[in-house]
Structure formats: C-alpha cells, structure tokens
Description:
This protein is α/β, with parallel strands linked by helices. The chain has two domains: about 5-90 and about 185-235, Alpha/Beta hydrolase fold, catalytic domain (Rossmann fold, 3-Layer(aba) Sandwich), CATH 3.40.50.1820; about 95-180, no CATH class. The protein has eleven helices and six strands. α10 links the parallel β5 (about 195-200) and β6 (about 220-225). The longest helix has 17 residues, at about 110-130. It starts with a strand and ends in a 5-residue tail after the last helix. The model has no long low-confidence stretch (mean pLDDT about 95).
Amino acid sequence: MDRIIFCHGMPGSMAEAALLQGANPTADVTALNMLDGNLHRDFDAITAKSTRQQRHVVGFSIGAMSAIQLAAQRPANVSRLTLISPAAPLSLGDFLSDMAGKPVFELAMRSPALLMLLTRCQGLMARIAPNALIKMLFANCGAAERDLLTDPQFRKVLTQGLQESLAHHPQGYVSHITNYVTDWRGLLPQVTCPVTLWHGTEDTWARPEMSRQLQRAFGANAVLNLVEGKEHYSTITKVSL
C-alpha cells in the first residue's frame, strides 16, 4: 500500500487522520498541517525522506482543495488522489445556498476581517465550552452523525480540531476559508492521476452534488462511491483505501 498523505478539513486538525486510520488499520497515514500555510514545503519534505517518491494523497472536506493542489502541482509525486466528503469549488455549481456552512463562506467573501472576529469568538467558545460549540455546529445533523457523536474518541478528535483551528491558529483557518471561496476550479483539469471520491448521501455540509460535479470535471480518471445513509464525518469511517 502507498504511504498516505492526509489533508484535514476546516475547522479541523491533524488529529482527523485517526478517523481514516481507524477505518484502514493497516494503512500508513501521515497528516499534513493545513493551518501553518506550508502545504507544499511539508509535502516535499515527506517525499524527500523516501526513495519512493510517489504518494497517495487523501483530502477530507475542505482539505480536498489542498489535496487537489498537490495532485495538480506535484503530478510526479502523487500516484492517487482520494477525496472524502469533498467541498468542491463553489464556482463549479449552485452549491452555497444549500450548505450548512453558508454564513461562514458568505462572510469570507464579504469581509475576512469580520470572519476573523467570528473565528476568535468561536475560538473562545472552543476553549471554555467545546461541548456547547459542538452541539451548536451539529444541531441539524442526522442520525449517522448523532451516533458518531456518542463515540468519545470522535468527540476528542472533533474538540481538538475546533481548538486547533479556531483558538490556536485562527489566522491559518481564516486564510484557508478565504482561499476556498475563490475560484480555484482551474486546478481540476491539471489532475492527471486516478481519483476516487467518497460521499455520504445525507451530507449537509458538502452535498453529494459536489462530488458528482468533481467526477464530471475529472472525467474518465474519477470513480464516485456514494455511501448510503452517511453524512459528512460518518463517511470517513467507511472509506476503504
């Protein structure tokens, strides 16, 4: 099996790699830190340490943007691309009106300064009342996510992601969100490696139509796996690498 390089979501942290590792216990998963702004440097450093130069890159949620960047801009070093619950470019379709994160993305488009203010408020909440923040963020989730929230290990990963993004690295988080809402669909035709997409049929954070549009954009190289009844986070527990 290829060594797997994992790009986590937002808000999130490298701890999300444990969810992928749990679904694939024999996999060799290394997470990149999406919050430090050194995506290519960190990837190149991992690649340089091994005689085997190609890597299987996996992107989760908004981390799909970073994974696609690596596949497009480091084609000699990416053997495969897997996207889990991917957030596609907003310019690829009429997605925003139906996304759970719509207020955050609209704020990123209008005023990154106000987004930073919101992020710092959420960061304070992530520090002192993480369970209340989780309850607020998952207020409209379905049965699959509610079941997942009963798992202490998942709540630990989720809490760490919220604290890392919103409390400890707000600048990195806001930068990533503001980059996401730009038009980056031009990267898609540059991806030449095989692509596998996984998407829960009940995902409200990134609707399944996002993966359908990505599959069309990638063309014959792409395969889409729809995971019946699963949502955003619960899909990653069903991915087979």
